[in-house]
Amino acid sequence: MNRPASPAEHSAPWTRLWKAGVLHSCASGIAGNYDREILGFWLGQIATLSDDDVLVDVGTGNGAIPLLALDNARQRGISLRIHGVDLADIDPVADIADGASRFDGIRFHPGTSMTALPFGDGSVSLLCSQFAFEYAPRAESAGEILRIIGTKGSAAMIVHSTDSVIATVAEAQHHGCRWLLSESDLLPAAGRLLDAMAGATSREARTALARDPVAESARHAFNDAASKLMSQIEANPSAELLQQTAQRISRLLAHPFATHDEADAAISSLRTWIEDEQQRLLLMQAAALDQQSLDDAVRLLGASGLAVRTGRLLYGGDTCMGWTIVVGNG
Ligand SMILES: C[S@@+](CC[C@H](N)C(=O)[O-])C[C@H]1O[C@@H](n2cnc3c(N)ncnc32)[C@H](O)[C@@H]1O
């Protein structure tokens, strides 16, 4: 019988994403930190804080929202007590370039669920969540959030909606993952070619490969799979993952590995990268809120009597990125 995944296993695809050093979960579409209307939303919330207030960002990933808060506090000459919480094994100070100086003063809590937050009742002025609250058990998380913000604090969230551009692109990406993992021969063919090339690190060895029938047959099979990949990319241009896979494979093929083990490890790490992406897409699709589930979340977040306001986050003027939820006077 399958046992349920432990929290660490459940979070592993997130942990690996953050360890790869991306700053936030929209890094493929938004360079640097969150910008435009997303930044505007957060700056509007952070502006309500004054010296020594406590801000907690749940599902913080590599700390994009804490970083916005810290930069804003530095500009305003105030000091905020900023915390970032995540169930995944995060370490933004180590995993983001210049992390020690950029996150100086922010306290991160890896392996910590928003269903059991390490903060006292009513001790938090602003609770933030960017694409995170919706991933956690909703009633427990809402209860914890209301407990730590008490009657005077507020909570602000941007959550995935089923009709956002992210949900639409996720469909295309998901199709790309399925094709790569279940329908195409690309990864096995790339693995066989890398294996045939392993050890051919000198010019003479590479020349000899051209006369090796095993290497030639691996090359033909790979070329065939690669041309099918190109057709998929043309047919499904929104699935960036297909283009990224093509780039990753061509980097692997550019320099033969010294050993078969290294070649095998490279292909299995590429497979894990695609599987992680697929897993995160599935989690996102399960987490995205339609109008009914937004209404349910609003009921949960209104349970302590604080006002709850919702809206749509339109990015670049008209691109729907999700719902906004503000609890309290933020
Ligand atoms: C889509 S990412 C968002 C990360 C970050 N807020 C951002 O915008 O870049 C969702 C994050 O929520 C975290 N998460 C999921 N369930 C959680 C829980 N129960 N408690 C805390 N974090 C959780 C995941 O580990 C992941 O890092």
Q: If you had to describe this structure to a student in words, what would you say it looks like?
A:
With 330 residues, the protein is of the alpha/beta class. It has two domains: 7-164 and 288-327, Rossmann fold (3-Layer(aba) Sandwich), CATH 3.40.50; 171-284. Helix content is 52%, strand content 12%. The chain is built from 13 helices and seven strands. The chain has helices spanning 7-19, 36-46, 64-76, 92-95, 99-102, 138-149, 165-183, 186-197, 203-209, 213-235, 240-254, 260-287, 291-301; strands at residues 54-58, 81-85, 107-109, 126-130, 154-159, 308-315, 319-327. It has a seven-stranded mixed β-sheet with strand order 3-2-1-4-5-7-6, sandwiched between helices. Helix 1 crosses helix 12, helix 8 runs antiparallel to helix 12 and helix 10 packs antiparallel against helix 11 (240-254). It is elongated and about 75 Å long. The relative contact order is 0.13. The mean pLDDT is 95. Bound molecules: S-adenosylmethionine. S-adenosylmethionine (SAM) is lined by residues 11, 14, 24-25, 58-61, 64, 85-88, 113-115, 130-132, 135-136.
Write down the Rg.
23 Å
Q: Indicate the CATH architecture of the largest domain.
A: 3-Layer(aba) Sandwich
Bound molecules: S-adenosylmethionine
The average pLDDT score comes to 95
Q: Give the terminus-to-terminus CA distance.
A: 47 Å
Q: What is the ordering of alpha helices and beta strands? A: HHEHEHHEEHEHHHHHHHEE
The biggest sheet amounts to: 7 strands, mixed
Helix content: 40-55%
Count of discrete structural domains: 2
CATH superfamily of the largest domain: Vaccinia Virus protein VP39
Question: If strands are numbered along the chain, what order do they take across the biggest sheet?
Answer: 3-2-1-4-5-7-6
Low-confidence parts: none
